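Human: Not sure, check this?
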Amino acid sequence: TGVAIPDNNPIGVSDVIDFPDIGLAQKIGISVNVTNSKINFLVVSLIDPAGTEYVLHSKSGSGTVLKTTFPDPTKTVSGDLNTWLGKNPKGKWYLKVVDSDYLNNTTDGAIAGWSIDLQTLSSKKVQVKGDLIVTGTITNTALAAQIAAEVAKNVPSTRVMRWNMWSSYDQAYGWMNGNNSDMYGGVAPSTWGDGSGRAYQMNWDVEMMRTLFNKKLWFGNNAMVASNTWYNYSSTNSWHTGVLFRIKNTTASAVTWTPYFYATGRTDWSEFASVSLNGANNWQSPGNHGSNSTYAVGLSIPAGRTSTVIIIAGSDVDSGYRTNSLAFYNNSLILPSGLQYVDDLDTVTGNIANN
C-alpha cells in the first residue's frame, strides 16, 4: 500500500515485508514503484533479514516515477542481491526511501508499491508413489540449510557493543573512586562531571577501554541502552552512559555510517554528549538537551581496517530530578554494505584508535 515520503528529511520512510518460509531462493527480484517530484534526489535502499543494506537507487535519473526491478534489468548501486541465491529469504525485508530535495517540508510522493519476487526450491516434502528414476545426484539442500541453522544457533552474534554507566560524584565523600581517571577511560570523574569530558579525550589504550567498557550488549536494529532518572542534589551529581563499537570496513574505500540516537546532556553544567571515531572529536551536544533530543552523526569509517566508535551521553537539565538516557533508533544499527561489527576487545592489543 502507498506510504508517503517525508519531504527534505534525512530520516526518510521505511516499509516492511515479512517474507514467509517458502523454500530456498533460486532467483530474486526486488520490484519498486516510487513517485516523487524529482527522483534524482531520492536514495532507495533495501535492508534484508540479516541486516545487510543494498542501495538500489541513488540520486540519478530524471522524471517523477521510479518503477523497475533489481538486479535485473536494473543493477543495484551497491550490494549483490544474488548472494541470497540458495538461501531461505524468510524474515523482515525493509525498503527505505530518503528525499533530500526541498519541496514543501511535508511530503513528496510515495512508495506506491514494492514486492519481492522469488523463484524458489521448495523445502516441503514431496510424496512419490511408484518408481523414482534419477540420473545424477540428489542434493538435499534443505537438510544442509537446516543443519547450518542449528549450528548457527550455538555461534554468538557479532552484533555486540561494549558499554557501561557511571556516576561522577559521591554526595557524602566527593569524586568517585578517589577521582582516579584509570577507572573511567582515562578521564577523571571530576572532568566527566564538571570539566566537559568528551569521548575523544579518553585514553584509547585497550586496557583502559576494557576497564571501563566491561559489559556486553547484544542488539538488533535498534537498542535502548539507558533510561534513568534520579533526585538531583547538586550540579556535580551526574550520570554518564557510554558505548563502544568495533566496526570493520572490508572494502577499499571509506564507508559512511550514520547512527541515529537519543542522548541527554547539559553543556552549561559541563556534561556533554559526544561522539568519537578513532580518537577524533567528531561531535558534541550543542546545548542543554533532555531525553527527547535526537541526533544523527555521519561517521566515515576508514577503508581496510577495524575502527572504534565511542558514544557518550551525559545528564540533562535540573527540574528537581535529572535524567541520563541513550538509545539508538531508525534501524540505524544496521550497518551499510561493506561494514561489519567485530567483537574483539578481549583480544586486540595496543591503541584501539589505530587498529
